[in-house]
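User: Can you predict the 3D structure for this chain?
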Amino acid sequence: MYRYSSIIALAGSVSILSACTGVASGAAEQTSPGQAVVARSAADDSAVMRTADAIVAGQVGAKNSDAGALRSAAQTLESLGARPDGDQESNLSKSWSEQASLIDPSTTPPVYRGRALGPSYKKGIVSAGSRVSIDQIFLAGRKASVALVPASPKPMSIEISDGQGKNICARRTSSKPANCEWLPLFTERYKINIRTSESRPVTYYLVSN
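Assistant: Here is the predicted structure, written as structure tokens:
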């Protein structure tokens, strides 16, 4: 009986292991007690973070009218199966591919083959002195991953809590994507809060799996 209880306790400890990860420079991170911070190399990047990085690269390409950067970002999003969250959202892969073709007609557009669904992304705006709260369900036993992508270099923060209000991850960033990853023990609804200290509204993308 003692041995059985020990195994159950060990399994529970492993199941609730969670992590907040992100790019090393330009972002501060906080974790609640009992959480483990996981160092991540480029090879370990999740599909969510690769999507977030592609969105950053695409935004830079659009600002600089760089057809090659736009094409590369569009192809990355397409290869990951990344798609907009909702019918009203713009498909960045298609729009950036079209922009690249307008800038340089010789630019080859990505081939859309109906790939399996990957991460989803959603554009939003948060005003100073307020917050954007998003409820999202994550499944038990499947790694949850969320990334906040500032549309411009502005101070922003993301906080995630579970159904009991327990803090899962808190990150601050100003330019690079801030990523939170954890392993839910139960299928439940989590709350994602986004804030900024800017005096003017700030645009961002939220990427999740």
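Residues 118 and 140 are 18 Å apart (CA to CA). The longest strand covers residues 188-196.
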